[in-house]
Every structure is written in C-alpha cells, then in structure tokens.
Amino acid sequence: MNDQMPRWSGRDPLAEIRSLKQGESPHGQQQELLAIPEKPLANWPNQDLIATVILDTSVFHLARGLDYTVPSHLVKKVQPGCLVSAKIGDQLVRGWVRSIRPGEPTRQRLRPISRVLSSHPLVSAASFELAEQVASRYAGNVSQVLTHAIPKRHAGCEKGFFATTNEKSVPNETQNVLEDLTAAFTRTEPLIASYPSGKKLLDSLEQAQACKVVWSALPEPDKPAPFNQIAQLITCSLRTPGSVLCLFPTGKLARKFSSYWEKTCSPAAPSALEYHFDLGARERYRAYLQCRFRQPRLVVGTRSAVFAPLNKLSLLLIWDEGAETFQEKSAPYWHTRQVGMLRAGSEKCSLVLGSFSRSPQAQALLMSSWARELTPSKHQVQLPKIFTPEYEKRDDPTIGRVGLSSTAIQFMRGALAKGPVLIQTARKGGRLGLSCASCLAPVRCPQCFGTVQQLRGEFICNSCAHHFQFSCARCGTQETRAVSRGNMQISKEIAAAFPQIPVINCDADNPLSEIGSQPALVVATNEQEPVAEAGYAGALLLDTGMLLSLDQIWTAEEALRRWANAAAKVAPGGGVMLSGDPGERLALAFKRRAFSQWASQELQERAEVGIPPTAVLATVRADQLTLHKIQQVANFAYAQVIGPAKNDQQFQLLVRSRLDQGEQLRQELQRIQAISSRKKWGSLKVQVDPIDL
Q1: Euclidean distance between CA atoms 485 and 494, whole angstroms
Q2: Which string of DSSP letters, residue by residue, matches 203-230?
Q3: What is the rounded distance in angstroms from the CA atom of residue 590 to the CA atom of residue 390?
Q4: Can you tell me the distance from the alpha carbon of 21 to that of 437, in angstroms, rounded to the nearest whole number?
Q5: Helix, coil or strand: residue 189
Q6: How many CB atoms lie within 10 A of CB 690?
Q7: How far apart are the C-alpha atoms of 507 and 515, rounded to whole Å?
Q8: How far apart are CA 370 and CA 512, in angstroms?
Q9: What averages of pLDDT result for each successive group of 10 residues across the chain (693 residues)?
Q10: What pLDDT was estimated at residue 683?
Q11: Stretch (H or E) spanning 515
Q12: Which SS3 state, helix, strand or coil, does residue 159 take?
C-alpha cells in the first residue's frame, strides 16, 4: 500500500509556558549532573578480572548491571552468559554475566562474585542484545526482560541434560525428505501458493530472503487453526539451514500443532520442540537448554518462547497475532508482536503475522510499508455466509427481549439438518443479574434494593432473603430476562428448546478437543470451542455486545478476532449469525469480512486523538506525592502531559508524544524510574503503549 501511516501531531499549548516556569536550562548547567571524567580517578589498584553482572532484582537502578571482580578460584568457571550469585548489601542475588574485561584500577573497591550457580553460557550475546532492545522499547531494564526470557534454573534438569551424550536434536535432512514434507502438506486445500502473492512468499522463504508479511489466512474448518498452511510455510523455510520458531496464543494450540506435525510429516523430518508454560518448570527449562545448546530446527511455543535462543533463525511465525495472551502482564509489559519485529530486524529473519481478522497494529505495518500483505482473492474458496438480523430489518419482536430469539432458534434448526452447530458465549457460569424484559430496568429488592435471583417463578433477594412477586415500576411488565448469562444457563435454555438434540457444554473446566459430524449443539466459551470432524454446519455468536460494553480501546478488535475465529470453524456452505447488539459498524465489517478496511478506519480515528499505534503513549501510576516529585524532575517539554488523575487507588499521569520522538520519551521514562528507585519515592508503575485505557 502507498498510504502512509497517520502520525499524531498534537502539541501541548502550555508546553512552552511550563518549560519557562520550571526553569529549563541547557545541557551542562544547573539541572544536569556533574560531568563524569573520561577516566575515573583510580583509588583501588585492582588486577582481577571485572565482570558486568545483570542482577535479578526489582530495584530498578541496580538491575541495569553492576561490576564485580572475578576471584582467582572462579576464573575458569565464569564466562559471559553464565549464572552467578553476588551480593547487594547483605542480600545474595543471582545474576547473569553480561561481559568480562581485564582488571583495571577503579574508583572504589568492587565486591567479588560470591558463587557460580551454572558455569554454562546460558544466555547468548544475541539474547542479551534482544533483551536490551526490548527494555529500551518499553522503558524497562534488562533484568526484567531476562526474567521472562529465561526460565528458572532447575539444577537436576541441567545436570541430566549435560550428562547425556552430545546427540544431535534432529537427523540431517536430505532434499528427498524436504520433498516428502512438501508433498505431505500440499495434498489438501487451501494452498499458500494459491494466494495472489503466495508463490512469491514461498520462493523468498526457500531462498532465505528476509521478508515481513501480514497474513490473512483462509479457514480450515476441521482444524483449530490453519495448520496445513502454517506447515507449508515452515516446510519451505526448512529448506534453508536455519531454524523456525512458530508461536501460538495458548499452550493447548501449540500442543495440537505439534501433534499435527508429527502425524503428518515423514519420520525423517525434524521433530517439533514444544516450549510453553504448560510443560511445567522442569520440562520448560529443558526445552530452553535444547534451544540454547542443541539448536532444534523447529520450535513451537507461546508468548515467552519469542526469546528462544536460536542462533540462526530463518522464520518467526506468530499465529493469531492480535490475541490478548501475547501481551505480557508484568513489567515491562512487552508484546510478542513487537519483540518479534525487533528480533526480525536484528537477526535478518522472515516474520509472518497471521490471523483470520486484522489488528490495527498489523494494519499500521502495512500502511507504513514495513510489511507486505498476504490475502486470498475474494472468490478463492467458498466461505460461510454471515447473518446480522439486528441490521437486516427482520420483523422479529423477540430480538433483544428474550434469551434466545425466534430468529436464533430458526437459524439453529436449519443448521442442525446439516450437522453440528456451535454456540459461542461471551462468558462462563450461570445467570447473573435480572432486568425487566420490556424496558431492561434492573430488578431490585423492594425492601433493601439488593440484587435478586429467580427461583421457580418466585423472586428472592440475595441480601435480606425477602420473597416477592415482580412487577416493573416503570412499565408494569412482570417478565424478566438475564442481564448476563453464562454457558451453563444458555445450555439449559437450548436444551429446553431442542429436547431431542444432544447439548454439549465446553469451557475451561470442561474442555473438549473434537466432536463428530452428527447433529449436536455445542455451547462453548471463547478459545474453548472444539473442532467438528468436517466443520460446523453453523455458528451462533451470542451476546455480541457484552464485550463491547467494556470501556477499553481494544474491545472492538478483540470482538472481531473472536468472531472471525469462530466463523473459521464453520464448513463451506454453512452460516454464521450474530445475536445481540454488536453495533452497526462492527456488524457490517464482519459480514463483509472487511477487516483491513475496519482497521484502517480505526487507525484514522486513533490518529486524531493520539492513541497507539499512531502515537507513543505511556502511563505513569503512583501515589499523588510520588507523581508530584516526578513532575518536578521530569523533562516532558517535547510531549503532552495529561493529569494527574485518580485511577482506582492510585493516581495516573498520561504522557504522549509523536512517533518520531518516542525514543526520547522512553529514555526519559527510564531515567525517571532510576531516580525514583534511587531516592525511594515509593511504588511506581510505568507502561508504554498500555492496552487498559
């Protein structure tokens, strides 16, 4: 695309006045630190080796690396990347050796390394560099990133790993094996080569030419994800000497693809190494050691596996790149997509971001020409038809008034004649909250105004146990409906409407992988939908407006992602129906499958108000006194500052800048955190590009 990604150009009109009021001064004067001499004055004639150690500590200004001497009895054990323990004050802390340099005189006496926990180079130089890039991108420190990138050491597992023979992880593949692989994954449609630009992508992967691609995949209804197409991309990349890293949003999906790969490919093909949290501490650490020292050809994992220490990475594939599970919930709050972009840039490998929908972040990469698009042609395959009765002027008075409208029941009845039907619910559980079926006024206890439950036609207060008969004070209606229903309640309603059809309930507590092709009603929550043998005959998406009722910037893209993933499980010729109130804009975008157009419009709207990815935005959260101190020492003259405003129990400061000034803002946020940590101002949370706005 030739369009340029919009950039927020907002400017704080009070920036200049605030700068004058704070007495901004040029570099090297009052507000600057004293200049440090090029060569510090040497007071201690040290001759021991000096190691820079990245300590695993929560103290921000100490976690960026401290110098320690290497005692003579540890010289043969200490090397870059090994795990050691050293003292901070009276506390013994573990850390990773970043580098070692010859002994030299220092200004003050350095402490020695206390102990070597692992003499093996667990962290490579490339891993250190990637961690530093991620820390800089998210205004954190290297220690925070390494904690996520490297599993906790398991001494017994490490001892057993290095005690085994130095066997190769996979046999050497011959050209015949690769041809067998290609044949195995191209027996069934759809084929990557059938995409308009698919052949060009496959040729680039086979020739080890680095490319960045945003991929809108064709569905494979009988599989949890487009496993066949993913395997085709991996197979072409395996023709080069490098390794392939394939990431999925959940460990469950990663295990399923690993099993699919083992069943489909030939015995001589490289096996898939699983690397995710579901493995457990011991097996996960063993998988890390295999990546570091045995360099497997194919690694399948989840979020933190993006840091897998593979020396020569040829392809990094992230499936369902907009999934919320790819967002790290602890500092420095990195996202797998962004880490993959950094890694693809530094290691010159190919990056493929795949999904059934399109996130605004992925669309921004296309509009800025950073990546190219891989989308199927309009009539390449037959896709399920999507119905949006709320906006098709259906004459159905039951829509929006009862749990299951007559239109929804008619849709399920028609689809059941062809096979199983999927009913996707917005949440798990039973019936929470009651409201009037006519005017939607909440039902409250007439005595204490508490919440009410309905039992066999009688209304009982949850607080005072008062029994009463309901009659709406607004409209006089005596009928009620559930404000929020879970999959358990919906299963009961569907079973009553279809007494002769089996109803299968699936959620995190009742998981199910596959079902047959016989008619059945499958009620499932998000990410827990089982796969039908030949695809579902239809899918009913209930309460589509529930997620959109949350006041968050990510709700619309998450709703489209969930709907698209459910629709991908429906067989060609089937149907998908939206029930509830998704809003006309989202309903039409989903019906027309205009995900890229919706993402472009979303970017335009975000650019007007300066929301990522069209601007750099950071939140600074602390108590009111700490934020006041931060404002006194911070230099945000080039950015817009909003707040402070109260957010739950803390106060929040929003800082926003243009994309071309983002690096300055992130460096300033790192400096502020170091000052706050050194002066012990209190708890401080800094998040760049937050999703909880």
Answers
A1: 13
A2: HHHHTT---EEEEEPPP-TTSSS-HHHH
A3: 13
A4: 59
A5: coil
A6: 18
A7: 14
A8: 40
A9: 47 46 41 46 78 92 89 93 92 94 87 94 96 95 94 92 64 50 63 92 93 95 94 93 95 95 85 93 95 95 96 96 94 95 95 96 95 88 82 52 74 93 76 66 77 73 80 79 69 87 88 91 91 93 79 87 95 90 87 94 92 92 90 88 82 91 93 91 90 78
A10: 87
A11: strand 514-515
A12: helix
- pTM, 2 dp: 0.85
How far is Cα 572 from Cα 559, in angstroms, rounded to an integer?
A: 22
The amino acid that residue 534 corresponds to is A
**Is residue 327 within 8 Å of residue 691, measured between CB atoms?**
yes
Peptide bond preceding 332 in cis form (omega within 30 of 0): yes
Q: Which of 672, 673, 624 is nearest to 650 (CA)?
A: 624
258/267 Cα distance (integer angstroms) = 14
Task: Say how many C-beta atoms besides its own lie within 10 A of residue 477's C-beta.
Answer: 14
Token output for 425: 């619910």
Residue 2: partners with Cβ closer than 8 Å, 6 or more residues away:
none
- 3-state DSSP call for residue 326? helix
Counting every residue written for the chain, the total comes to 693
Q: Is 550 exposed, middle or buried (0-12, 13-18, 19+ CB in 10 A)?
A: exposed
**Residue 289: what pLDDT?**
95
Q: What is the pLDDT of residue 93?
A: 93
266 sits in which H/E element: none
Q: How many CA atoms lie within 13 A of 303 on its CB side?
A: 18
8 A C-beta contact, residue 279 and residue 208: no
Tabulate helix, strand, coil % of the chain (nearest 5): 35, 25, 45
Surface-to-core class of residue 320, CB atoms within 10 Å of its CB (0-12 exposed, 13-18 middle, 19+ buried)? buried
Report CA 339 to chain centroid distance, whole Å: 11
The tokens describing 214, both together, are 């945003």
* Residue 468, pLDDT score: 83
Q: Is 188 exposed, middle or buried (0-12, 13-18, 19+ CB in 10 A)?
A: exposed
pLDDT at residue number 34 = 43
Strand partners, 92: 87
Check: CB of residue 614 under 8 Å from CB of residue 7.
yes
Q: How far apart are CA 202 and CA 250, in angstroms?
A: 26
pLDDT at 408: 87
Per residue in 108-147, pLDDT (tens digit) is 889 999 999 999 999 999 999 999 999 999 999 999 999 9
Q: H/E/C letters for each residue in 460-495?
A: EECCCCCEECCCCCCCCCCCEEEEEECHHHHHHHHH
Write out the two tokens for 134: 């991620």
511, with CB counted inside 10 A (0-12, 13-18, 19+), is: exposed
